[in-house]
């Protein structure tokens, strides 16, 4: 089934979400011996409705539905197309933050690219959860306060911080020398050192000089008026409409009923109400204490699993 004449990734940046993967992608893409496509293919999680519910949207032509096993030959031809521009001497990569969390991705990756190298970035799960919430707010998907979203959307917000169980699946399928785990806090503190380590991990004979590069690629945007923003998100349900761009590059995706007026309204509202000149509000102390207790329990044994003392950066774990 695999076409040995076609190119597949030599490495994958598999997550996590809001952990610095965009910055890592940007810096590695400056290396002349590395090729990474701009889009996240989501190839190994195409039909994972738990991780990508927004891929399964209904249009005038019917539902978008995906079946990895049934349509694998077609999906593979589509996947190959992401890498056809890579030069012969380049190391090929791809990144997709949902791979870390997917229960299906590890086995699929191991079957199709068994010798691939995997890179994961982990961030203090409390900070990661809070950052994802504000990302949902600005992208018009959050409709409740942070505390209410924790209660009503815990699957996406909380479970994505259960790093130990997610990484354990990968260690079942891959040798330890195929997996590199970086802590976000260590990465932003020692960018050059971490990039050097990644390049060595990929067996490249040179690194990327980051001194003249902007490592931080996703600037935070915060609503001037949170209540108004949540009301808008709930009223117009733009958390779904605003996600259509994410499936536009998927194989045989149908987005025929895209609402141009609603998209314009959403973009206009966001431009008016979002600002980069305002920090996130402080998390409520009780909420922080709850999250620290939860993530300490769920990530017990993580340091032993990845052979790195995470408590060096996350004191509560």
Give the N-to-C terminal Cα separation.
44 Å
The percent of residues in helical segments reads 25-40%
Strand content: 5-15%
- Uncertain residue ranges: none
Order of helices and strands: EHEEEHEHEHHHHEHHEHHHEHH
Based on DSSP secondary structure assignment, what is the total number of beta strands?
A: 9
- What top-tier CATH class fits best? Alpha Beta
Rough shape? globular
SS-derived structural category: alpha/beta
Query: Counting H and I runs of at least 4 residues, what is the number of helices?
Result: 14
Give the strand order, joined by hyphens, for the main sheet: 2-5-1-6-7
Structurally, the number of domains stands at: 1
Oligomer: single chain
Topology summary:
Blueprint lengths: L10 E3 L7 H8 L5 E2 L22 E2 L2 E2 L8 H9 L10 E5 L9 H8 L4 E6 L2 H14 L7 H7 L1 H4 L5 H11 L5 E5 H6 L1 H11 L20 E2 L2 H11 L1 H4 L18 H14 E2 L9 H14 L3 H5 L11
Parallel strand pairs: 1-5, 1-6, 2-5, 6-7
Antiparallel strand pairs: 3-4, 8-9
Can you summarize this structure?
This protein is α/β, with parallel strands linked by helices and 317 residues long. It has helices spanning 21-28, 72-80, 105-112, 125-138, 146-152, 154-157, 163-173, 184-189, 191-201, 226-236, 238-241, 260-273, 285-298, 302-306; strands at 11-13, 34-35, 58-59, 62-63, 91-95, 117-122, 179-183, 222-223, 274-275. It has one domain: P-loop containing nucleotide triphosphate hydrolases (Rossmann fold, 3-Layer(aba) Sandwich).
